[in-house]
Amino acid sequence: MNIFVIMIRTILKSNQNDLTITLPDNLVGKLIEIIAFEIKEEKDTAKLKNQKSKPSQLRGFLSKKSSESMHEHISQSRAEWDTL
Prior knowledge:
Blueprint: H1 42-50, H2 64-82
């Protein structure tokens, strides 16, 4: 079973109890997980918003099995494009 995770992360400060989420088209009809928790330090939140992410920061994020599966999928996709 291949599992590919598409993740959207947003940090916000809500002024009410209701929150409406608009999903991208590729997530409609899919099983999704929504998590809400408090972030204690507002200084850290501002720092995260202004900080540019680097690909190297994701090292070790995926398990070896997931990584190999993803690379296999990418290779197959590239091969399909090469045949066109």
